[in-house]
Amino acid sequence: MHINTEAIPGSVHLVDESGDLAYAIHEKEIVLVPTPSDHPDDPLNWSKRRKYLNMFCMVLYVMALGVSGSAVYSVITDITEHSTLTVSNLNTGTGVMFLFCGWGNLIWQPMALQYGKRPAYLFSVLGVTFSTLWEAYVKTGPQWIGSKILQGFFVSSIESLPESSVADIFFEHERGNWMSLYALVLCVSNYIAPLVAGFIAQGMQWKWVIYWTVIFDGLSLIFLFFFWEETNYFRPHIAPDDEIVEDVSPEMKVDEKSAANAVVGTASSGDESGTPAPTYTKKSFVAKLKLLDRSRPFMLWKLIVRPVTMLRFPGIVWAGFCYGSSLIWFNVLNGTASTIFSADPYYFSTSMIGLTYISPIIFCFIFSVYAGWFGDWLRLRIARRRGTGISEPEDRLWLFALYLIIAPCSLILWGVGAYHKIHWIGIVFGMGLLGGSALLGCACSVNYVYESYKDLSGLGIVSVILIRNTMSFGMNYGITPWVDNQGLNKTFIAACGISIACNLTFLPVVYYGKRWRNWTKAAYWTYVQDAIDNGMVH
């Protein structure tokens, strides 16, 4: 297979304005990117039922692991009262868990590429089940931290593998909706677990929060074993219009109409000389239960190092920073919710504090529609307005314009409002805006990486998660002394300014992102060629 290294990664022909492209949905003028093969087991060719079942499994997986990592947030007081563990032990364990949630992906994503996503998914659920069960029997602080290290490592796969499955199954014009669903479930799992756990702890002992989580994980593992099939698929060729080649001048003045093919390969269907198209046999149910994917040359160590080397790409570094800067406000929310609602003038009980998480859950659903359906519509709209049908990954980043307004306003309403003891409805509304809008940072950042560097997106998202969770790890340690030393008023006024500064960074990316991708194309295509030669691109 020959790769044209002059192609700019991420620039794609998404809308067929001329009506003469072979791989387009003609009645909708949408080009299918990437181009599917002729095989019925190619995930892009799956029936809607088969795709939806796979996405249901993804939702169940994210919910199972997300709940396991966040179930104890609202029962910290119960744990300290009925065990020898201290609040410091619990908070340290949470911080270490977040750190391993990021760095554990250096193992899971390479493992998924080397051996298949299915074994990575199943083994991670199995590991989470037993590491979570250990939490109910720990006696000392070091044991608790040890259990959270293991839990963080196994939960870490939730951060990078589901997005890869979405990219395997859906075309680029569909991907925003499903990435938004992933972000929605990821956020909701972290909000709904403390809500339910508060009531379980009140009606039963706190250990039953752990036991019910383990039961849920075990049942999920059984279901996923039988119904979640592998999505890795190596296509013998890449779409004729999958990447756009542009002769980019230093001033970025480009004649997009002269775009050529980035990758040239052989067609998989019958040719004009009369050679019949090959026939394929669809996988049986038993074949779908296989744990290991197709055999490949051993590249595990190279795949582990590759996410670190991809930090040379400015777009990936920015996506990690953007994702991290949105997640830290989620940490601020969790770190201050109990303090705010349990104090004067609110005096909420543990179960009532849990109920306040309904607000961010509701807003997560609202923002998921904005990030998903509206984001896909916006990208197609901009591609059509160019007149060439060319779409750029930066087009979707205009969604940040709303987040630029909502995030600082919600921080003021939450923190400064609590300082001035406004009515609890205002505080809960601010909580919802703050927690729900964090979904935008997740969805936009993940989509940007997958749309910019599709062929290496699985490893690229690991680079993003490394940055994101390292930022989260630092904030977990910093939020309590920050509030204690500065107070709610000064803390959240400063947070408002920091949020505005962080979110404004999307504007330079919109204008210079394409130039960054052009600068890094040589390194990117070198990595892609290496992956193609070893059957790692799908």
Automatic annotation (TrEMBL):
Location in or out of the cell: Membrane
Residue ranges crossing the lipid bilayer per the database entry: 52-76, 88-108, 183-202, 208-228, 311-332, 352-375, 396-416, 422-449, 456-479, 491-512
Main localization, broad class: membrane
Cellular component, GO, one term: plasma membrane
Superkingdom as given in the UniProt entry: Eukaryota
Membrane topology note: Multi-pass membrane protein
Pfam families: MFS_1
Keywords: Membrane, Transmembrane, Transmembrane helix
Gene3D superfamilies from the UniProt entry: MFS general substrate transporter like domains
GO molecular function annotation: transmembrane transporter activity
PANTHER family from the UniProt entry: MAJOR FACILITATOR SUPERFAMILY, TRANSPORTER, PUTATIVE (AFU_ORTHOLOGUE AFUA_8G04702)-RELATED
Protein name (Swiss-Prot/TrEMBL): Major facilitator superfamily (MFS) profile domain-containing protein
Organism the protein comes from: Kuraishia capsulata CBS 1993
